[in-house]
Fold:
Amino acid sequence: MQKRVGLALSGGGIRAAIFHLGVLEYLAESGLFSRIASISSVSGASLCMGLIFSASGNRWPCEKEFSQKIQPKIRKLILTENIQRAALRRLPFSPTNWNNRVEILAKMLEKMWGINGSLQDLPPFPFWEINCTTFETGSRFRFRRDYMGDTKIGYVQNPTLSISHMIAASAAFPVLIGPYILKTEGLRFTRDKKGLHKVVNVLDRYTLWDGGVYDNLGLEALHRIGGGLDSEIDFLITSNAGAQLSPQERGRPSQNLRRLLNISAAQAESLRTRDFISSVVRKQKGLYLEIGHNPESIFAREYPTTLNSPSAKDFDLIFKNGYDCTKFCRG
Structure:
């Protein structure tokens, strides 16, 4: 029996999207691409997955198709269609746009990158889980083809929300993009994921932020601390293209607060990483990849977290780092 491979893909803006594409290119060339059974994405990784499904007609491509058609098509889109610049140009024309920046991002994903359709248009296999952070509960809110919700609110079965909006919600970095407001009118929430239990009462709306606020690695969907791998997979590849915490002098109060929040997030990520490495990699049931894994690739790690289009040179350097990192770690 072939191993069912899971992917936990981190946030990190366009840097993460490109790095993960490099990881996937190596998996396609090595024959592991077709074994991918479950994908958990955050922020920039959600952009990456949205591009893959969009470029292949909302289905999972075969390995040859990904390498020869899908990946080159995505490269061209990222280099030529700058969604961040296009979204920013729309803000001055309407004051109401400032309060709905996530909606603008979703429209740019549809118009410029061709990411259309609803969650029900995604294939049943592999599972793709798009992660956000619920402000009201402090938990992870996830969107899948078969359900959406979080452990404290409950779940809705077979949601029909648009893919572009769910990706924008996953990438809704506080302040820069702003939250996605999920209105619950007409939605049936139950305590369980299959809808077998009674309906539960929920708030009229929930505020969803970037999934990286809760878990920037996207690990919890496929590997729980102390609990091992999810039952849907046998082997887990964690690809971390998140920003590194570099030295910083004390500055203005707002800068200091952000710094303290970053330190806290870095420590939480470190705990998840250590648990994953000790419980999964040690048992040869997983692989941990990290951007900028050697001195020659420090540039990739330090590339800014943005949604702006990179230069062709920068794209290729980050992509190659993802490819080389996977090849080196698997070898």
